[in-house]
Design goal:
5-stranded mixed beta sheet; about 35% helix; 5 strands; alpha+beta
């Protein structure tokens, strides 16, 4: 089914729906706290993202209903002759629309946004426990050219 989506910057009232989507999978359910009221940490994180001109929390909407989310961070680097890059994080689609192209449209939108901002590169990571996500990103042209490492604090 082809969906007519529109994309916009998230606003504070969207945080509940965003956290609901983040918590609605095997990995997310172990690390997120989707409860009412939401923990204040989510609102504080939203405010920090929203106040930073190099961070964008973007929602995909089908009509008024939020069906997807992603965060894009724009970072200047001295490498690549002082180029900018975009990092895509926290990509989620609503379980009700998975497999309907919403994720593809989210990433395509992010690519266009990175181009608008003059980025020379887009990077993202996906958990090794998400092999379907890895295949999804590869289908969209992303390549596993680097090893990503994380240190949990």
């Amino acid at each position: 089914m082809e969906r007519e989506l529109h994309f916009r910057q998230a606003v504070e009232r969207d945080v509940d729906r965003i956290v609901e989507m983040l918590a609605d999978d095997v990995l997310g359910s172990k690390r997120e706290r989707y409860e009412h009221p939401l923990p204040e940490s989510y609102i504080q994180a939203f405010k920090a993202i929203d106040s930073d001109p190099n961070n964008e929390l973007v929602v995909a909407c089908d009509g008024e209903k939020i069906v997807g989310v992603q965060q894009i961070t724009f970072t200047p680097y001295l490498t690549h002759q002082g180029g900018w890059r975009a990092t895509i994080e926290g990509v989620r689609t609503s379980a009700s629309v998975r497999g309907e192209g919403v994720g593809t449209k989210l990433i395509q939108w992010a690519i266009g946004r990175a181009e608008e901002r003059g980025c020379h590169l887009i990077q993202l990571t996906t958990d090794k426990q998400r092999p379907d996500a890895l295949r999804f990103y590869e289908r969209l042209g992303f390549q596993a050219t680097h090893e990503g490492l994380k240190l949990k604090l």
